[in-house]
Design brief:
- Helix 1 runs parallel beside helix 6.
- The longest helix is centred in the C-terminal third of the chain and has 27 residues.
- This protein has about 170 residues and is mainly alpha-helical.
- Helix content is about 80%, strand content about 5%.
- A hairpin with a 4-residue loop joins strand 1 and strand 2.
Length: about 170
């Protein structure tokens, strides 16, 4: 459950980008979670796993598991669980996913807006035939160009998730 807090924003952000690019119809069946995900979200999730290990956050997860077997955490009752903080931590995951992809989403929205104006100016230019290939091509170029920004944002949100988990542990202990 704790590990999912690190990787769900990348999957959610990749789903947003795939939806904007029009690639959400090409969904891949995920045997790990019994749901389908897009290729872009799987790609971002794979890169987030690599970044997770590069930042050595797996040590934090191991320490968290070790603390969960601590005497202070094993005697926490059901009514003493920080449910409000836990729900707000899971609620922030989708916000993190959207904020990671925000620069890319704004530019893809501008591409769609320009294509809509071109369609209005020249009705013979079919938005589905020409616009789809322009959106996918330009989106791939933007994914390549903005990958340092996206991975920097992923790093920032990894540390925010780490702070959220540390706050949850602090509220359970003390």
């Amino acid at each position: 459950l704790v590990l999912g807090l690190f990787f769900w924003p990348a999957r959610i952000g990749g789903s947003y980008v795939a939806q904007e690019l029009g690639l959400s119809l090409a969904a891949i069946s995920d045997p790990g979670s019994q749901d389908s995900s897009t290729l872009v979200s799987r790609l971002f999730e794979a890169f987030s796993v690599l970044l997770f290990f590069a930042l050595k956050l797996h040590h934090f997860v191991i320490m968290t598991i070790h603390l969960s077997f601590n005497q202070a955490l094993t005697q926490v009752g059901l009514l003493e669980l920080p449910t409000e903080e836990l729900v707000s931590a899971f609620n922030r995951v989708s916000d993190y996913g959207l904020l990671i992809m925000a620069p890319l989403m704004v530019l893809l929205m501008l591409v769609s807006l320009v294509l809509a104006f071109l369609n209005r100016a020249a009705p013979a230019l079919n938005l589905f035939t020409v616009g789809m290939s322009i959106r996918v091509g330009f989106g791939g170029l933007l994914l390549f160009l903005f990958s340092p920004v996206i991975f920097g944002a992923m790093e920032l949100y990894f540390y925010r998730v780490q702070e959220d988990i540390e706050f949850l542990i602090q509220s359970m202990v003390g």
